[in-house]
Amino acid sequence: MRVKRCVPVCTRLVLVLVMTTAVLLAPPPPLFAADAPVADVTVPTVGRTWPVGLRPQLLRGWEPPATAYGPGHRGVDLAAAPGTPVRAVAAGRVSFAGRVAGKGVVSVELTGTGEPPLRTTYEPVAAAVEEGEEVEPGEVIGTVDATGSHCPVTCVHWGLRRGETYLNPLSLLPPWLLRRGPSRLLPVYGAT
């Protein structure tokens, strides 16, 4: 009689164990469901910091255009208050710092990213760097300009290109930097 009772209980335990393992081993869900995949095989993970803040709110994700002049969003928009420091995400050389169509723009060619090199662009930014300057990851390259934002709230548009091809700038960042929520430490049983 005990064996017959154990079978359903044991089956449930095994099912719970299998489901828990599947959840723990499953890849994390996409960071932004409406976006194209975050990873891009042509983009090395050289980013070491977000351009603004520690984990800025994404106002609009990357939406690659189907054609060269088609609709889309050729970068990501990150919420940031006017005056917020804007940082270089990776090491490189400032290829442009000035105004384009009335907006402050800073572009940085990223070191060691192939030919043509990857180029990140940040706007609207009041530049604190000049063309030709070398920058390190996390170095302040300017501040968020109070005017020129195309978002409903002030934001920084962060773009990435290789030559004439637009790429997802989130691809520059390592997965641990993209994760939402706090890190969690699990207990180590039997440790003294």
From TrEMBL:
Sorted alphabetically, the keyword list is:
Hydrolase, Signal
Domain of life of the organism encoding this protein: Bacteria
Query: Short name of one Pfam family for this protein?
Result: Peptidase_M23
What residue range is the signal peptide?
A: 1-33
GO MF assignments: metalloendopeptidase activity
InterPro entries, sorted: Cell_wall_metabolism_enzyme, Dup_hybrid_motif, M23ase_b-sheet_dom
Q: What is this protein called?
A: Murein DD-endopeptidase MepM/ murein hydrolase activator NlpD
